[in-house]
Amino acid sequence: xxxxxxxxxxxxxxxxxxxxxxxxxxxxxxxxxxxxxxxxxxxxxxxxxxxxxxxxxxxxxxxxxx
Length: 66
Fold this sequence. Notes:
By secondary structure, this protein is an alpha+beta fold. The chain is about 15% helix and about 30% strand.
């Protein structure tokens, strides 16, 4: 599947998912089009899957005591 991207110099292109991940990590693009939502994702403003972060909510993966 090819995804549309906008580079930092405002050029557009289509890239595969592996290339998209590399471009996001290197911050070589401004945004990409998320096909399922039909919306552009600005990588400087919106959270991107896999970028990590600190979760401060309750632990939900712990097994319950029987």
